[in-house]
Amino acid sequence: MIIQEIFDGLTLGMVYALVAVGYSLVFGILRLVNFSHGSVYAFGAHIALVTAVSMGYGIVWGLCASVIVTGLLGIAIDKISLEPLRKKKSKPISALITTIGISYIIQNGLMIVFGSESKWFPKIFDYGMIYIGNVALKSTQLGIFLVSVVLLLFLTFIIYRTKVGLAMRGIEQNTKAAYLMGIDVNKVVSFTFFLGGASAAIAGTLISGYYQIVNPQMGFIVGLKAFSAAVLGGIGILHGSVLGGIVVGISESFGVSYLGGGYRDAMAFLILIVVLIVRPNGLLGKKKVEKV
Amino acid sequence: GEKESDTVKVALVAPLTGDFAEYGTGFDNAVKLLADEWNEKGGVLGKQIEVVSYDDKNSGEEAASIAERIVGDKSISAVVGHFASGVCMAASPTYQEVGIVEISPSASHPDYSSEGDYIFRNNSLINVEAAETLKIASEVFDAKRVAVLSVKTDWGTSTSDILINDLAAEYPNLEIVGHEEIVDGTVDFSPTVTALMENEPDTIIVVGMYNILGPFTLQYKDVDPDINLIGFSNAYSEQLIELAKEDAEGICLPTIFFHSSLDEKVATFVSSYEEAYGSIPNSLTAQAYDSMGLILTAMEKSGSVDRETIKNELYNITYDGISGSTTFDENGDALKTFNWLTIKDGEFVEVER
Amino acid sequence: MKTVENKTLLEVKNLSMNFGGLKAVDDVNFVVKKGEIISIIGPNGAGKTTIFNLLTGIYSDFGGKIIFEGREIQGKTPQEIVMAGIARTFQNIRLFKEMRVIENVLTGTHTNTHYNFLDLIFRTRKFRKIEAEKTQKAIDILDSIGLKDKMSDYSVNLPYGDQRKLEIARAIATNAKIILLDEPAAGMNPQESEYLLDFIKSLVGRGYTILLIEHDMSVVMNISDRIYVIDHGKKIAEGLPTEIANNKQVIEAYLGKEEEDVA
Amino acid sequence: MNKENKIHSIYNKLLDKFEDSKKLRIIIYVATLILVIALPKIGLSSYLIRVMTMIALYSLLGQSLNLITGYTGQVSIGHAGFCAIGGYTSALLNVTFGMNFVLSALCAMIIAGVFGFLLGAPTLRLSGTYLTIATLGFGEIVRMIALNWEGLTGGPLGVANITRPVIFGKELTTFNGGLFYLIMFLLLIVSLAIYAIVRSKMGRAFMAIRDDALAATLMGIEVTRYKVISFVISAMIAGLGGSFYVHMVRFIDPNTFNFDISILIVSIIILGGMGSMRGIFLGAILLISFPEILRFASEYRFIVYGLILVVMIRFKPEGLLGGQIRRKYRMPSGVKGGL
Amino acid sequence: MLKLKNVHTYYDNIHALKGIDLVINRGEIVTLIGSNGAGKTTTLGTITGLLKPKTGKIFYNDKEMTGIIPGEIVKRGISLSPEGREVFPQLSIHDNLRLGAYTRKNKKEIEESYDMVYELFPRLKERKNQVSKTLSGGEQQMLAIARALMAKPEVLLLDEPSLGLSPNLVQMIFKLIKDINNLGTTILLVEQNAKMALRVADRAYVLETGKIIMEGDAKKLLNDENVKKAYLGNL
Ligand SMILES: Nc1ncnc2c1ncn2[C@@H]1O[C@H](COP(=O)(O)OP(=O)(O)OP(=O)(O)O)[C@@H](O)[C@H]1O
Ligand SMILES: Nc1ncnc2c1ncn2[C@@H]1O[C@H](COP(=O)(O)OP(=O)(O)OP(=O)(O)O)[C@@H](O)[C@H]1O
Ligand SMILES: [Mg+2]
Ligand SMILES: [Mg+2]
């Protein structure tokens, strides 16, 4: 039983991790809490739904279309609403509220176009169940796990091993200096938003394929919890997001068993607050050095 | 003396946007459909009927604000509306205080109708419906070990509470072996499935709408394909079959409205609804349709559009609608009879008793 | 004419501080007497700012002793240290950017403004009297340092040199006995440095004691009663300005050989 | 000079006039008072009075959040949690013990303040985003507890049949304008208190912490203590707002004060201008009346609402009345040598 | 080579530059002096595109480059060591330098530049992996200059390079300015240490409250009585 709970939690955790990586990515570069990420994730899922089901191209093309369209949406969000704020050197909180405004627009736009009801979504990685002892593991769970790991490695590679990754980190720390280094800040930021959007699309498609259900509100609570997961792990640290996701997932799974389903959504936040009190920069976060 | 106007106004308040927009839109559609039908036949008391729609987003605050607005508009004679009980109850004190009839097609909170004599519901009381699900468990599935999954809303909590603590005792052959709760909007049921499985139930009663019953069915049948599932009337929706596909086969639920019913009135309603809006109405939509019918009939019978007269008349009428024959008890609660439905070959059919 | 009382105000004994493997401050001793202007000089990265950080309680985990007015500073919080009478400016300016110039100075008076919550909520007579008093004091300080005209400006909009002055004004407002100035003349032109120099001297006349870090030798040599020289965390020399200017080791490590500008 | 600056400078000039002339000030105050008293009496529909009541309530909540976010610089997106605590406290005391508004509101403030302390003390060491997300978590946890602790809160059923405020034996309703007078009175008291705090040593400490916590420490300001104080005061005001609200709508359930409400409050202060008391009123007026005005747009309403947020912030990120004020500093009376 | 024509720059509604005309010829060292708040930093900010002039034009190699983004300006060969150092605080010294060479492609030449700056500032080499936030003020200043050099610019703009440096390093910096100028780099130098600046410069401009009030041969200005009185001090 406990093992089953852990496995349930792990999968759920990877779900959060997939979404959390997108939060972390944008936060890591821009110090911006991108509240629209949850609705961008729902948007990605709907694009995949349209391409795969309504237009009948199947899930693979659905995923591809979703990655590109959602990535572009990411860029559009930045160009239209956030870039002007960067120019005016506004406070981070203004940008945060802007992203909330964006998420209203996207979520309600989705509702108008698709209706607010839940819709069926085709299953992915469907190779039945895998039994380890009497623990049941769905092949979809395994698929999600693998994709998360690959996505994570890919993003980590970009950020820590490439020149554009160095530029991203530079922008985060000192935008003015980044300009002076000849970095085309807006392009790099757009690229970051593309990655953020694309990762949301991947997450949206995979997770919808796992639960076989999509609706315009799907991003909200997952978004909040994934965000907590990202902070829990140490926001801006990509593998921290994965760890945070897993911790949240497993604690939820146990929370359901021992406290009842009603407390389920509280678990993520409870763990978050407890961890932050003990480790103010998250599980993997390091204290920023202060020099006076 | 106000000037006699040549229209009769009825307000419709429901979530037309937001997470519950599908239900609210259904209300709005149904109410307007009925008004159109009456208007074609000459309206009520010789006046044309006008539906004034308000969107409360299923938020108590919005609802209260809209209620103030409605009661202040003297030309409005009655209100159909508010979706969730909690939202209804944020608005009903205002309706009661000023004195205007509110009929909710969906409120099920036990306390709702006791807010006052102007407050009605055209929905069965939760204990009645809960008793039906147990009857299904016992008679259709011959269930021995029943588990309950309930959504953590006012409706889900009160229903599961009555089901487990009051009603189950009437079925000695049947044991309640587990109860799990989930919050609305949940899509991942794996920990819940794991917890429920532990008690090895043969039947699960799901106190939740189609968007819970659907994905839950998928995820539960993945691990135990033989489970019997029972839902409630608000899971009665084509969307349920759409979401759960083949896994939906065999799900049973009680409802006061059945769209493929042989009843002629129902058939006409379903076909004109489908023609007008391109979708099949669900149970709550039908109840909204009848709520409007009740109000209009009360006006016609009493010969007045006065707010108080309508109220008094409602306690006296018997209305033969598409959700069965309706009368109100002294609380303003509707008394209803149920059909049992199951899903067979991708369609809802009546259970043969 | 200023008077140096022969009273030790601040004494530092065997002060040491490590960052990882780096000995940023290594067994440093020095003494500051009341009414003195003492300079600490030394190459970049010698550990000067770190000494200031230790004196003001920013790092609490260090070796050695700091004794201020006969009491040890170790274990005291930065607040307690300010209240005991040590105030400072920062090498990298740290003003309250979105506050006005005068509000920055008023913030400096925080520890010596005494009224309670009820006073402030009800704006009692006492409250109004103290507020007026402190505002007056802030204006006077700004006047003396030449920022009175700009007291309504937001500090972030001031030019660099004025920001430095404002830092000093804010430190003075704390009523500290000793003021630690970390490169106050950086970013000022010679004429302004000269003005600053006069100002610092006038502070001593008003009873303050000054500990100064500065790379501008025209300032240091002109103003200091005594100079300590730090290199690689260690004290390598101390003495009167003239002694230091001619100290071979100091010239080697710090001043540079062909320095012609030093008077 | 562009147009925006012109508007600003006219505004500033008016304010200068206002502040310099005692006579003008008194005239305006009295006029406002008469207006407020008259509003419910001039035959406005109860709907409009209700909207105005909500504007006043959200101004109060905005002032409360502005204290920690605008002045102390601690961004909270879980403020509705404090409203909920205040609301439940009041609701339960009223329903169980029949406590009247005055007492129950007082208790609500105290309990909310205690929670402000409990949340503030351990989490205020957190910086920036970490604190923000902790407050989000707090808001959600409060909601979850309200949902699950059925024995106390009634769970999803909520608490119903709360009585309206009764003051001097008179029941205050929307219809008799009583609720409107009450909230205006509370708003006045709260605004005066916050103004007093801001224009004092304490307010300066808050702002110093916002701008540079370390430098503030070295000015002798006990950073954590002041942060906690601002949290507690803010939580108390939010609790008061929550209490008023439940006595007004006479019902509370776990969704009454949800995340959307927290966000609405933050949006009000961002739009109005953080750290500007006048701005908050403006923000509340705009954000509460927009959805009402936009009702005709029905399903597009939220999109329009989102657009308004995005566009307003885009063109005025510091808020309508926020940012640096290009006016001279207002000296306390009795100071010579001011400019 | 670099030409500013009647440039006006504002901060919101603060008129900081009131019509600056300035010419820098290839291979020159030009210095800009003036008291606090005169607009020196603003001038450099306007040249590098960080600030947009309201009116006026900037030409580089006879091509107009008013309103171009800073990234492009760096690519064209202008780099700045800014006031206030502006290092990337959480990156190591080495990563800071890598970003300095962001616009350059030739790996080998970049390696040579590393060698050069590390040789100039041995302290930076020693601390290659130290997070730059923890460097002392002077060390950060060295890093800012080194980073500007990493771009291998045609025109190097220096905003108070000697700020916070010890006297021997100040001498070293001025020598360095001469040296890289001899290697063909054009230099625009902003300095508070006007005496030193005028000594190394070929020509100079004197700025006062956003206007150029004097210009000419650096050595001449060095002996100008007014300049002496206002900017050189008498210590
Ligand atoms: N937090 C830290 N971690 C690691 N090294 C540090 C830290 N703080 C300071 N150092 C190092 O300690 C040394 C002393 O630094 P400090 O700031 O005291 O120098 P300084 O004498 O003030 O120099 P400058 O004149 O350049 O300001 C420097 O080499 C610096 O890099
Ligand atoms: N961000 C800003 N907002 C508003 N005004 C500013 C800003 N930055 C500079 N100013 C103003 O612009 C003018 C020119 O400033 P600038 O920084 O260019 O002077 P500077 O000559 O570099 O002075 P310093 O020698 O002190 O560095 C000053 O009056 C200053 O107050
Ligand atoms: Mg230093
Ligand atoms: Mg400058």
UniProtKB/TrEMBL annotation, chain A:
Transmembrane segments: 12-33, 45-73, 93-114, 142-160, 188-214, 226-250, 256-278
GO cellular component: plasma membrane
Topology with respect to the bilayer: Multi-pass membrane protein
GO molecular function, one term: L-valine transmembrane transporter activity
Compartment(s): Cell membrane
InterPro entries linked to this entry: ABC_transp_permease, BCAA_transport_permease
GO BP: D-alanine transmembrane transport; L-alanine transport; L-isoleucine import across plasma membrane
Domain of life: Bacteria
Keywords from the UniProt entry: Amino-acid transport, Cell inner membrane, Cell membrane, Membrane, Transmembrane, Transmembrane helix, Transport
Keyword Manganese found: no
Family named by the database record: Belongs to the binding-protein-dependent transport system permease family. LivHM subfamily.
Name recorded for this polypeptide: Amino acid/amide ABC transporter membrane protein 1, HAAT family
Organism: Dethiosulfatibacter aminovorans DSM 17477
UniProtKB/TrEMBL annotation, chain C:
Signal peptide: none
GO cellular component, as recorded: plasma membrane
CDD domains: ABC_Mj1267_LivG_branched
Domain ABC transporter as annotated: residue spans: 10-257
Record GO biological process: D-alanine transmembrane transport; L-alanine transport; L-isoleucine import across plasma membrane; L-valine import across plasma membrane
PROSITE patterns with a match to the protein in the record: ABC_TRANSPORTER_2
Keyword flag Nuclease: no
Keyword field: ATP-binding, Nucleotide-binding, Transport
MF GO annotations: ATP binding; ATP hydrolysis activity; L-isoleucine transmembrane transporter activity; L-phenylalanine transmembrane transporter activity; L-valine transmembrane transporter activity
The keyword Transport belongs to this UniProt entry's keyword annotation: yes
Gene3D superfamilies: P-loop containing nucleotide triphosphate hydrolases
PANTHER family recorded: AMINO ACID ABC TRANSPORTER ATP-BINDING PROTEIN, CONSERVED COMPONENT OF ABC TRANSPORTER FOR NATURAL AMINO ACIDS-RELATED
Protein name according to UniProt: Amino acid/amide ABC transporter ATP-binding protein 1, HAAT family
Species per Swiss-Prot/TrEMBL record: Dethiosulfatibacter aminovorans DSM 17477
From TrEMBL, chain D:
Pfam families in the record: BPD_transp_2
GO terms under cellular component: plasma membrane
Bilayer topology annotation: Multi-pass membrane protein
Compartments (UniProt record): Cell membrane
GO molecular function, one term: branched-chain amino acid transmembrane transporter activity
Keyword Signal attached: no
Transmembrane segments: 24-42, 48-68, 101-121, 128-146, 178-198, 228-249, 261-288, 300-317
UniProt key word Transmembrane: yes
Key words of the record: Cell membrane, Membrane, Transmembrane, Transmembrane helix
Protein known as: Amino acid/amide ABC transporter membrane protein 2, HAAT family
UniProt source species: Dethiosulfatibacter aminovorans DSM 17477
Lineage, broadest ranks: Bacteria, Bacillati, Bacillota, Tissierellia, Dethiosulfatibacter
TrEMBL record, chain E:
Domain (ABC transporter): residue spans on this chain: 2-234
One of the GO BP terms on file: L-amino acid transport
SUPFAM superfamilies per UniProt: P-loop containing nucleoside triphosphate hydrolases (SSF52540)
InterPro entries with a match to the protein in the record: AAA+_ATPase (IPR003593), ABC_branched_ATPase_LivF/BraG (IPR030660), ABC_transporter-like_ATP-bd (IPR003439), ABC_transporter-like_CS (IPR017871), BCAA_Transport_ATP-bd_LivF (IPR052156), P-loop_NTPase (IPR027417)
Keyword terms of this UniProt record: Amino-acid transport, ATP-binding, Nucleotide-binding, Transport
GO molecular function: ATP binding; ATP hydrolysis activity; branched-chain amino acid transmembrane transporter activity
Family: Belongs to the ABC transporter superfamily.
Protein name per Swiss-Prot or TrEMBL: Amino acid/amide ABC transporter ATP-binding protein 2, HAAT family (TC 3.A.1.4.-)
Organism expressing this protein natively: Dethiosulfatibacter aminovorans DSM 17477
